[in-house]
Amino acid sequence: MDLGLNRKSVVVMAASKGLGKATALEFAKEGASVFISSRSEAELKKAVEEIRSASGNEQIFYQVCDITNPKDIQSLIKEVVNQNGTVDVLVNNAGGPPAGTFDKFQDNDWQNAFELNLLSFIRTIREVLPYMKEQKSGRIVNFASSSIKQTIDNLLLSNTFRAGIVGLVKGLSQELGEHNILINTLGPGRIGTDRLTELDQVRAEKLGVSVEDVQQQAEQSIPMGRYGEPEEFAKVAVFLGSGANTYLTGQSLVVDGGMVKAL
Question: Is the pTM of this model over 0.85?
Answer without folding.
Answer: yes
